[in-house]
Structure formats: C-alpha cells, structure tokens
Amino acid sequence: MSEQHLITLTVNGHDHELLVAARRTLVDAIRHDLRLTGTHVGCEHGVCGACTILVDGAPARACLMFAVQAEGRDIRTVESLGSPEAPNDLQRAFSEHHALQCGFCTPGFLMLAEGFLTEHPHATKSEIRAAVSANLCRCTGYQPIVEAVDDCARKRRCAPGPAAAPSATQAADTTTPAGPARAAADPGHGQPDTPRSP
Questions:
Q1: In terms of residue numbers, what domain contains 76?
Q2: Could you tell me which residue, 172 or 131, shows the higher pLDDT?
Q3: Measured on CA atoms in the order 37, 167, 12, 132, is the torsion positive or negative?
Q4: In which region does residue 25 sit, left (phi positive, over 0), alpha (psi from -120 to 50) or beta (all else)?
Q5: Per the domain annotation, does 124 fall within a domain?
Q6: Average pLDDT of 93-111?
Q7: pTM score, two decimals?
Q8: 104 and 135 belong to one structural domain
Q9: Same structural domain for residues 103 and 172?
Q10: Given phi > 0 = left and psi -120 to 50 = alpha, else beta, which region is 49?
C-alpha cells in the first residue's frame, strides 16, 4: 500500500483537501479526484503539453508533477476560463480562427496561451509562435492557433477593462455553442474519463 498524504490546494478559486498516494500525479488528482476532465492526458512524459495547467500563474505540465508538489499552490485548469454558455475571449478567438480540429490538445494550448499572454501582453506574432511551439498539435498546422492568440492579445490591449471576462450579454446567453465553439469552450466534451491506475 502506497503511503498516503493529505494535501491542501486551491483549484480554480476553490480550496480542496485531498488524500493522495505519494506517487499520484497531479493530472490524475485533477481528473479523477476532482473530476475536472478538461485537462487531458497525452504522452505522460511532458512532451505533448495536452495536460498544461497554470501553477501559481505559470504554465506547467500536470503529468510531470506529483499531487503532493501542489501543496499550498494555486492551480488553474481550462475550466477556469469560461463555459459553453459564456466562453472567455481566448476560447472565442480559438473558435473564430478555427484553431482546433479534434480538440484533444486544445485545453493545453488554451492554458499555455493564457499564462503566456498574462506575462507577455505585448507579444509579437513571432514570440507567440515560439511559445505555442512548446505544445504538440497533429491537426491544425499551428498557424490558426498563432492567429487566435495574436487576435486575443490585440483585443485585450485595446479593451478598456478585463477582456477575459465574458460580457453580461454573453453570460446571460444560455445557448450552447455547437461544433468548434463548443469544443473550445468545453474541452472535456466528447472526451471519456478513462480510469487509470493510481
């Protein structure tokens, strides 16, 4: 029996206490213990970036961290960005620029871009291209992703207030987007939660 540890962490603004095995990865704790399945598991070697989350505001590979390493940390997953009814500005940009196809890698790209734009609000398109190259996508060819992130960055710079928050009209609109819009706003949609060993 693996040694168990009681940890406390903040995920998407909510405090949690979890009893986890010493070898349990953070991505498993997020997906299976907290049931936040928007964070996807790909290579499990820190290469593909599908599991990218924000840890204390910085992008991190959740498959490379143990859950015990998240003790006292502030974690943000893709669920923190928006919802199918009210996607945030970055999710809308991904939909508008067709920056996703199968959608499996999209949560990782969204969180990578969110962290990058927070640190580099005036990033050039070349800098954005270099940043997103850290994650792998087999479908889009990357250019739509670069265009989406660049468009979002430009709109945020021009916005008088916090651009990432949905407007009152968008928050009130309960129409569920279809196709790419839904996939960008609801990255867990269509992705089964396959049990994995602890």
A1: 4-80
A2: 131
A3: positive
A4: beta
A5: yes
A6: 96
A7: 0.81
A8: yes
A9: yes
A10: left
Inform me whether the pLDDT recorded for 178 exceeds 60.
Answer: no
25, two tokens = 């990865």
Q: Which residue has the higher pLDDT, 183 or 126?
A: 126
Query: Among 80, 114, 131, where does a domain finish?
Result: 80
Q: Find where tokens 């399945």 sit.
A: 37
DSSP string, the chain: -PPEEEEEEEETTEEEEEEEETT-BHHHIIIIIS--TTS---SSSSSS-TTEEEETTEEEETTSSBGGGGTT-EEE-GGGT--SSS--HHHHHHHHTT--SS-SSHHHHHHHHHHHHHH-TT--HHHHHHHHTTS--SSS-SHHHHHHHHHHHHHHHH-SS-TTSPPHHHHH--PPP-HHHHHHH-TTTT--------
pLDDT given at position 166: 45
Q: 159: pLDDT confidence band, cut at 50, 70 and 90?
A: confident
Residue 174 in any domain: the answer is yes
Residue 134 and residue 160: Cα distance in Å, rounded? 31
Cβ atoms of 1 and 19 within 8 Å: the answer is: no
Give dist(CA 47, CA 125) in Å, integer: 23
Do both 47 and 102 map to the same domain? no
- Domain boundary at 80, 106, 124, which? 80
